[in-house]
Amino acid sequence: MTKFYSDILQEPTELLKTLNFTLGEGKPSVDQAARILREATNVYLVGIGSSWNAGLAVMSFRWETES
Fold this sequence. Notes:
This protein is 70% helix and 0% strand. With 67 residues, the chain is mostly helical. The chain has one domain (3-62).
């Protein structure tokens, strides 16, 4: 088994740990980041590949309550 394949097999476990943290102990930090984005006058998003996609997800916090 290659290191790459081993990493792929670990992804479901790591995703679950990330979600548990984000919705648990890390939730206050995520909420604070969302407040900062909503209150910002200008937000610049820079990235390529997965960092760009992550940034797009973060931007959804900014307009979550504006509709």
